[in-house]
Amino acid sequence: MNQDKLETISNLFEDKEIRSIWNSDKEDYYFSVVDVIGALTDANIPRNYWSDLKRKLSNEGSQLHENIVQLKMKSKKDGKLYKTDTLDTKGIFRLIESVPSPKAEPFKLWFANLGSEKVDEVFDPSKGIDQMIDFYLQKGYTLEWIEARIKAIIDRKKLTKAWQDNGVNDGVEYAILTNSIYKEWSGMSAREYKAHKGIRKENLRDNMSRIEVILTDLGEEATRRLVEKHKPYGLIQNKKVAKMGGSAAKAARDNLEKNLGESVVTKDNALSYKYLDNDKQIEHK
Fold first, then answer.
1. Beta partners for 28?
2. How far apart are CA 180 and CA 6, in angstroms?
3. Which of 86, 42, 41 is nearest to 67 (CA)?
4. DSSP label of 273
5. What is the number of helices (H) and of strands (E) in the chain?
6. What is the distance between the terminal CA atoms of the chain, rounded to a whole angstrom?
7. Which one of 164, 219, 226, 285 has the lowest number of neighbouring Cβ atoms within 10 Å?
8. How far is CA 31 from CA 47, 54, 174, 267, 279, in A?
9. What's the rounded Cα separation, in Å, for the pair 126 and 28?
10. pTM for the complete prediction?
């Protein structure tokens, strides 16, 4: 199963249409369970198959049953909206593991191989780095770009370590501080920036221009230096310093744009596809 097939659940089933809805708050998809069941089994009525399986999972105390969310989706028959059982990406993968069907075996084999790879990485972390480099190369990135990307990841770890040393210990708080930096220099939160570029689950920095990456790096590096200098403690104090770091990048952006006569924040991305709507998730460019 190649990486291109991992862009969305829909692509995993190739010619089968899997209805999905993007949840921008959770930054995840919710997929129609009946559509997945129909793609994985030879059931004449997938809805009945799912009803029986859902009852079985409920009797077994499966948490998967508890994670079902009903969302309105457009019917393939009459085009009207009906409440439909959905699961997020993690839930769909767990569903696939629960379906006793030969068509599900390739996915189960992929899960097993993926788990084996993760175990190997525990004993030899360099394998994970090698896989990351290979993945970026397959996406068309240069070795020079990959080298800079790895350095940026390390620098990001230095920043979160500085925050941790100064009373910030929660991933949500890291996101709040990061948004403060982004908002200050770009005028957008990370989520708004991703929407501006037309991306969803993809990494924002992977879809930035070189100038955008430099400004992002400047904002984060300035923030780290200021944190180490002024020793703010807790979220509120660190948020003020994050804005100061973002201001340094904003000053650089304003000066550059003044001389260029154009914005350096673009809608360009590195995707080989584009998102359309909730009925058809991607279209290859």
1. 23
2. 31
3. 86
4. E
5. 12, 6
6. 21
7. 285
8. 14, 16, 29, 27, 11
9. 29
10. 0.77
